[in-house]
Amino acid sequence: MTTGPDLRIATLNDARSRRSAEKRAAVEDAIKRLRDTRQAVTFVSVAREAKVSRQYLYNNFADEIGEERVETRAETEVI
């Protein structure tokens, strides 16, 4: 059984894992909602929709959002 400082550390680690999973789910849901409503998927729009910082997105979702931006530009490009 974990007690004292080890219990506190385990509790903090669990809380951090939960917050991280909640943020990730919020970002993934925000991207889906933006796509479904045909809105631009940008760092600013996702951050606003998911209620997370742009820095969080740059650190954790740069590739995914970057790909979305390229796809959106390709769809809207007029030749």
Structural description of this entry:
With 79 residues, the chain is mainly α. The chain contains four helices and no strands. Helix 1 crosses helix 2 and helix 2 crosses helix 3. It is elongated. The termini are far apart.
> What is the strand tally?
0
CA-atom Rg in angstroms? 17 Å
Number of helices: 4
Strand content: under 5%
Rounded mean pLDDT is 89
- The helix content, as a percent range, equals over 70%
Mass-distribution shape = elongated
Ranges where pLDDT stays below 50 over 5 or more residues in a row are: none
Backbone structural class: mainly alpha
Order of helices and strands: HHHH
Q: What is the CA-CA span between the terminal residues? A: 67 Å
Q: Indicate the multimeric state.
A: single chain
**Largest sheet report:** none
